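Preliminary data (for renewal application), pyridoxal-5'-phosphate complex.
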Amino acid sequence: MKDRTYGIDTLAIHAGEAPDPSSGALVPPVHLASTYHLGTAEKGAAIFAGEQEGFVYSRWGNPTVALLERRVAALEGAEAALATGSGMAAIATAVLNVVAAGDHVVSATAIYPSSYHLFSVELKALGIDTTFVDATDAGAVRTAIRPNTRLVYVETPGNPILALSDLPAIATIAREAGVVSICDNTFATPVNQRPLALGIDAVVHSATKYLCGHGDAVGGVIAGSKAFITRAANEPLRYFGGVLSPFNAYLILRGIQTLPLRMARHNASALVIAEHLARHPAVSWVSYPGLASHPQHELARRQMSGFGGMVCFDLAGGVEAGRRLMNTVRLCSLAVSLGDTRTLITHPASTTHSVVSREERLTQGVTDGLVRLSVGLEDVNDLIADLERGLE
Ligand SMILES: Cc1ncc(COP(=O)(O)O)c(C=O)c1O
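Predicted structure:
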């Protein structure tokens, strides 16, 4: 199947598939084997030498995981992809595929907090320095590049307040400096944004979120050139060992089949809710890339084909109002993570960030009344009614 000739709805269901030769089963088998018969000594030697294709050991490759990789590669328009045990494993593997001790990274400040920790603590301990910049300003990325910079890292739309980075501008800056660019595409998904087509070198995903879509598997994926992915597979993934379980690959593949349909609904409902909240007297501001009031709405229209299911807003009543909303909603689940069929809501100041000082949390953009909503697939009127109860 020549994947690139099909639309994304078709790719989500068929890309990379090959009917199981032993049974003809249309649903891909979950290959649980950790090791594989090498056939003959000669064939084993040829596989080890890379002269012949074949599975050897499931940390090096697994047929169910390989199908997921082919599918995500097709969706992202990449030459190849590599699945990992979590989104953080995808980010760590992709980054360690590029940088080593003595190298320098330029990263957006507004990224998923664990990614920020990876750069600021874990990689720093390995002798890799990171300069964090406001990547909404592509010029700030250019200014931060040093002679030993090897990587520019962005997440767009980014945590916590859905700020955007101009992907074509950042890709050009990185290319001109001879630096690799990586984008976390978790929030947008390949349905709403294709960073590789905009010039970015590699994409990382927490497949735990929209790709899986049902909140029942943790996983990650990297997509990029064949050379980038082959090195990532043969070096950091193989030796740090953060591989994906075949069963989770199966669940994520099952979820991906409905990704375009789900994203259409996430996009539509999030816009309705964002517009509703923007008119609400209890809400001081709303951040949603699809609203004309978003500071980078024009950029969102240029580089995204849909604005996603994440909405951030700030309650005028601060911490107390946030606590009241969290304790009142019934349909929205008070839970971290995102991209699920069900709506998830968090108020960082009273939950995840309650152990962080107010000053520190404010520097991370987490205001007293900040609420993050991952808009699910429920009836949008039911969701609005649920939020209304807590906003009164
Ligand atoms: C944007 C983003 N990237 C990466 C991750 C990490 O993914 P995982 O939890 O699958 O390791 C998350 C998790 O919330 C995320 O929101």
